[in-house]
Design a protein that fits this description.
3-stranded antiparallel sheet; 7 helices
Length: 415
């Protein structure tokens, strides 16, 4: 009897093992399986006629990018509308997950771009890509040193680039997309071949592969990142507020943030050595850019080096102060009424057309070349540091107070 019980138990175990081994694996985007779950036809056959579905390992995020988990938030100005523009009233929108640069693009990053453009493009395009260093010049100020030194001197390498127009920033995004994809394609190709080399040799091979890699890589290869681009106004504002850090208090987020941090002040409220220090680089009042010597309140009279102030809850630096930042949207005063509540973007030439505004008689300046910028700068008072505030400028214009950072969609995510 006992032996029969043991045999029965062994039989049951065998059946369970066979059943588990025959259990059908659920295909996923990263692991679609060896054949189609709809037709049963094999993928990647040797006959060359079958459908090619390569195995894929998710690529890491591009350099300097931070993942921003999407969600719902209240977009619009939370401060009193002291400018009386009434162009950014509150509304609820949802944002798909995306990536955003941890920091603004710095001088050294833009010089890298100029170097590549000078080697690979026409002299005309190179000249168009040059920042306007004369944005520092003021006939009533001695800023002449910034005109000649700020962009190119090594001491300013990691200060945010300024004097860059919206068009130039967009061109930089295009170049960066190609540069990063070439680099990642080379690394992916080397990894796929199972190369076992020393670090120096691997790096040399990756550089060589990048140089010889095709200029157009297929999206299906899995080695192509989505395009770098300027963030939309909604994405920028969502990321700047960093409301992910308030979830512990209220899922409905009724306690909105005025700035990219908690509280209504611009000073660090946490106890310790940093208590009372300014959380951003801005103009405190008329003629006061940094406070008195020895007691400098924000540590910078003009711009400041990247990462000099605390990051917000997403890990993003300088989402308030230092320099304003270009966003993708065209400016319209009615953006808060003419919007989609999912991934809002105000495109040019659609709804609220420029032709409706009386520009011929100088009763309006609205056209399809006005672009929004946000965030406040070293030369702005605290009002403009609130993520909900917005201003605009011609897409071909530039100033010493406006820079930019890049963004990218997050592929393979439904949120």
């Amino acid at each position: 009897m006992r032996s029969m019980g043991i045999r029965s138990l062994a039989l049951v175990l065998m059946v369970l093992v066979v059943a588990s081994s025959c259990k059908k694996k659920t295909p996923t985007s990263l692991k679609p399986g060896k054949s189609s779950s709809k037709t049963g036809l094999a993928y990647n056959g040797k006959d060359g006629e079958s459908f090619q579905v390569k195995q894929y390992k998710a690529l890491p995020a591009g350099p300097d990018l931070v993942f921003i988990e999407g969600g719902r938030f209240t977009m619009g100005s939370l401060e009193e509308d002291v400018m009386n523009t009434r162009d950014n009233l509150e509304r609820t929108v949802s944002i798909q997950s995306f990536y955003m640069d941890e920091t603004e693009v710095a001088n050294v990053h833009y010089l890298e771009y100029l170097d590549a453009v000078q080697r690979d493009s026409s002299e005309e395009f190179y000249r168009r890509a040059l920042p306007d260093t004369n944005v520092w010049f003021n006939p009533l100020s001695f800023n002449d040193s910034y005109v000649t030194m700020y962009l190119r001197h090594p001491g300013f390498r990691l200060y945010p680039v300024v004097g860059v127009s919206w068009v130039q920033a967009t061109d930089y995004c295009t170049w960066r997309t190609n540069a990063v994809n070439q680099s990642m394609f080379a690394k992916g190709t080397a990894s796929k071949k199972g190369v076992s080399l020393g670090k120096k040799r691997k790096a040399a091979q990756a550089d060589a592969a990048a140089a010889s890699a095709p200029t157009e890589m297929s999206v299906e290869s899995g080695y192509v990142l989505p395009p770098y681009r300027l963030p939309t106004e909604a994405e920028w504002e969502y990321a700047a507020k960093g409301m992910i850090g308030t979830q512990y208090a209220d899922e409905n987020q009724s306690n909105q943030r005025i700035y990219p941090w908690d509280g209504s002040t611009l000073r660090n409220s946490q106890r310790g050595r940093k208590q009372g220090q300014m959380l951003a680089n801005f103009k405190r009042g008329k003629g006061d850019y940094a406070g008195i010597a020895g007691r400098s309140n924000d540590g910078a009279i003009i711009t400041q080096e990247l990462r000099s102030y605390p990051a917000n809850d997403y890990g993003l630096y300088d989402m308030a102060g230092n320099v304003n930042e270009w966003v993708q949207d065209v400016y319209r005063p009615l953006s808060y009424t003419d919007f989609n509540d999912l991934n809002s973007l105000r495109r040019d030439g659609y709804m609220d057309e420029a032709s409706k505004y009386d520009t011929k008689n100088s009763n309006s300046i609205i056209d399809d070349k006005l672009r929004v910028y946000k965030g406040g700068s070293w030369s702005d008072v605290a009002y403009w540091l609130s993520p909900g505030t917005r201003r605009f400028m011609d897409q071909d214009s530039s100033t010493a107070t406006v820079g930019f950072r890049c963004a990218m969609i997050a592929t393979g995510r439904n949120k």
